[in-house]
Amino acid sequence: MAIIVPSSCSRKPQASATADISQQQLMERAAELCQYIPDHELRAGSEAYLTKDFYAVLDTMFNHLPEHEAMDHEWLYYFVTGNGGTIADYEVASVDITDATHATATIKVRQKWENGSFDETTDIEEHQLMMEFVDDQWLLADFDNHKADCIRHIAETR
């Protein structure tokens, strides 16, 4: 996984949660959180890296609805890589601190094959990774607004 961290990042005024972390550290944390973006499944151990509410929504989607429910709505399984065969290669392009406890990272995702070579047929896609400062750490709070999509889907199936 390549993590490229540019020196020029958009930044709004700092507040208490952000005062103790540099822009570089926040970008590194965003890169770490990329590994917990659900892709085909909810990764084991992801609970420690997601906000409680985002984890609860994803856990319901991936582990507590009939399997065909998620498969009928492919985006639930394929947040980043599409229909299998590739691995997401993440690059944090920027982090925008929106307030004392929220930040949004713009990440670029490129697909590479399982052998490590890049898939030249797909474009680099931009995604938004939302972070929230909870209990003295930055956690993954949403990804491309999929949390709201999942909540709607859960409401429809119950």
UniProtKB/TrEMBL annotation:
UniProt superkingdom: Bacteria
Protein name as annotated: DUF3828 domain-containing protein
